[in-house]
Amino acid sequence: MSGSWLDEIAWTEDGLVPVIAQDHLSGRILMFAWMNRESLALTEQEGFAVYWSRSRQRLWRKGEESGHRQKVLDIQLDCDADVILIKIEQEGGIACHTGRESCFYRSLKHGEWQTVDPILKDPKTIYK
Amino acid sequence: MSGSWLDEIAWTEDGLVPVIAQDHLSGRILMFAWMNRESLALTEQEGFAVYWSRSRQRLWRKGEESGHRQKVLDIQLDCDADVILIKIEQEGGIACHTGRESCFYRSLKHGEWQTVDPILKDPKTIYK
């Protein structure tokens, strides 16, 4: 995991950095997750998003179960060097485990979270 | 701070939620910050982004010094209810304290973070 670019990142105390995944064409925000140093290095090397699963405490190659990998076209860093933005091509057009294009499918309307996006594929058929 | 929609958010142990601010027209990600329950309630009530400054430990009405307020047009929630996405209209066209449109102005090229966006306004003239 060489690369001084990794040293420039202001990792959290837990050694993580928040990552926003954005569709490179539509500009839609597809998901938000975390990476550690190893997963970010792998993301750069492999060209596909590799996150750090905080719940499972292990590397999480996005799409390893669903097949919905995220091809990474650009990696960007913010002014404080503590947030990463990746521009991706979402394989299968589905980023969310609910079977939707994006994890952000609820919008606040009249004081309630309303679902504004359809399920494109039944999760039962995604995760077998 | 009533509103059951606030109760549906999975706040961190510190009572915060990460917030992504996206330009409602261009789709560009302008910044990333945090909100607590009070700041999110105020954001909804006032129609302009109010963050929680972790460094200063106080409410931070975006633009209070710079004048670069963020009019909030939509508030979205992700599948795990632990990340907020706001669609905004950025007053002044500058979200970053460096005087750039977006805080994400560095891109990884050939193993280095390269600045790919211009400074639109000298920060010295923004923060007087």
Number of domain modules of chain A = 1
Count of individual beta strands of chain A: 8
Q: How do the strands of the widest beta sheet of chain A line up side by side?
A: 2-1-6-5
Approximate helicity band of chain A:
10-25%
How many strands, which pairing sense, and closed or not: the largest β-sheet of chain A? Answer: 4 strands, mixed
- CATH fold group of chain A: Ubiquitin-like (UB roll)
Q: Mind telling me the CATH class of chain A?
A: Alpha Beta
Q: CATH superfamily membership of chain A, which one?
A: Phosphoribosyl-AMP cyclohydrolase
| Quaternary class | homodimer
Biggest interface and residues each? A-B, 36 and 36 residues
- Structural Rg of chain A: 15 Å
Count of DSSP H/I helices of chain A: 3
Helices and strands of chain A, in order, run as: HEEHEEEEEEH
CATH architecture of chain A: Roll
Organism (chains A, B): Methylomonas koyamae
Catalytic activity (chains A, B): 1-(5-phospho-beta-D-ribosyl)-ATP + H2O = 1-(5-phospho-beta-D-ribosyl)-5'-AMP + diphosphate + H(+); 1-(5-phospho-beta-D-ribosyl)-5'-AMP + H2O = 1-(5-phospho-beta-D-ribosyl)-5-[(5-phospho-beta-D-ribosylamino)methylideneamino]imidazole-4-carboxamide
Cofactor (chains A, B): Mg(2+); Zn(2+)
Family (chains A, B): In the C-terminal section; belongs to the PRA-PH family. In the N-terminal section; belongs to the PRA-CH family.
Provide an overview of this structure.
The structure is a homodimer of 128-residue chains. Chain A is 14% helix and 39% strand. The first copy, chain A, has one domain: Phosphoribosyl-AMP cyclohydrolase (Ubiquitin-like (UB roll)). Chain A has helices at residues 4-7, 37-46, 123-126, and strands at 16-23, 29-36, 50-53, 58-61, 70-78, 84-90, 104-109, 112-115. In chain A, the strands form 3 sheets. A 4-stranded mixed beta sheet of chain A has the order 2-1-6-5, covered by helices on one side. Chain A has a two-stranded antiparallel ribbon with strand order 3-4. Chain A has a two-stranded antiparallel ribbon with strand order 7-8. The first copy, chain A, is mainly beta and 128 residues long. The longest helix of chain A is centred in the N-terminal third of the chain and has 10 residues, at 37-46. Chains A and B meet through β1, β2, β5 and β7 of A and β1, β2, β5 and β7 of B. β7 (104-109) of chain A pairs antiparallel with β5 of chain B, so a sheet runs across the interface.
